[in-house]
Amino acid sequence: MAKTDDKKSGLSDAEKLKTLKKKLKKLKSALKEAAAGIEARAGAAAGAAIGAVAKPGNPVSPLAPARFPDLPVVEGVEFAAGAAGVKYKGRTDVMLVRLAPGTAIAGAFTKSSTRAACVLDCQAKLALKQDTAKGAAIIVNSGNANAFTGRLGQEAVDTVTGGVAKTLGVPRERVFSSSTGVIGEPLPAERITAVIGDLAASLDVSGAADAARAIMTTDTFPKGASATIQGEGGPINIVGIAKGSGMIAPDMATMLVYIFTDAQIAPAMLQRMLSSRLDQTFNAITVDSDTSTSDALILAATGKSRAAPITDLRSAPARAFGKALSQVMLDLAQQVVRDGEGATKFVEVQVTGAASDADAHRVAMAIANSPLVKTAIAGEDANWGRVVMAVGKSGAKADRDRLCIRFGDMVLAEKGWRAPSYDEAAASAYMKRDHLIIGVDLGLGKGQRTVWTCDLTHRYIDINADYRS
């Protein structure tokens, strides 16, 4: 040691300085490499975080309600919502509902020939005789439709519903699932099953609003509606939540809808009450004429109301319940139209005087789905000639000289010609409203139908052009 010190002490000042510079250079190089590594790791982490976080949501529709409604508690129904990272990390994308023993279930589903695995699974389960003594559950994810995914699709459904059944202690055949989002991508079922325990632990009778947010995709606002009637012996509550914004066209259900009531109604009667109200509600709306692969409506009746059971469709309680159910269904259906992708106008199309109700429906849908009609509405152009075109292409019976077209209360065309009272300025002013009524009377019979749609703006293209990115 002494010799080494003596050797070092024999170096000149210039040599010592040179040695120090070499050491300093090595130290700087090491620090630079370390900093580069840290920066790379930080950048990768930031990039991953950015990629995992959902892209900014669409602006809230100008037609949206002022706020989410206050929903009454339906005894026997509990909700939970959470983030599973199905598509984006940090986004609430799973909803779980637990239904008490005694619950009757009814449903309606898309008629698409390319139905998603979850739709086929729900239909198969509802075809079985229901054991209402057992509890039930519903689990829904957004971000992935689990459609056109082959054998893997059903395996994913079995994994998710099996996980719910095990956690909640209900039969698997009483667990119903829905998925909404991108078509053709395998559902990461393990991400959903990983959060089922947390969801079960957070089930809450007042959680409907969070559940409604969890099932949103391109929706700009959560959708909810309710009604309460007085039954024989106590009140009956009905609560519904829904999602839907694009790929909306009649063929039941045109969106995801979950309606809950504490009424005591047997499954068969509940199904009849639901099915008879589809054509005037969910099958009477359209945004873009495209029917989804994944649409589902599930109606659950827990039977926990103190009111007497509804057993006769002709009874006063049954009629009151049916009216309230229709009200909730129509409210939710119209909210979907108000949240149509890029919509700025809510449009009601009223068709009367058709040879039949079926013809009235054809005409109404031809108008509501016409890109030319919808873009004219977006541009606030009172181009009633496009309505004439839509009537003519509908395939329904029509007579030019009996046709009458109205925008609001104004008659624009009748008896095969522009109406003598036609006022272009007044018609143009009317088109600036955000709620429009287009009336068509065919003058041929008593058939009638009303449907609801929205305008078609460039924003619709913007939303759908990068839906998967």
From TrEMBL:
Subunit and interaction comment: Heterotetramer of two alpha and two beta chains.
The protein's name in its UniProt record: Arginine biosynthesis bifunctional protein ArgJ
Gene3D superfamilies xrefs: ArgJ beta chain, C-terminal domain, L-amino peptidase D-ALA esterase/amidase
Record keyword Transferase present: yes
Residues the UniProt record annotates as site (Cleavage): 253-254
EC top class, as a word: transferase
Pfam short name (any one): ArgJ
Residues at which substrate binds: 217, 243, 254, 341, 464, 469
InterPro entries referenced in this protein's UniProt entry, alphabetically: Arg_biosynth_ArgJ, ArgJ-like_dom_sf, ArgJ_beta_C
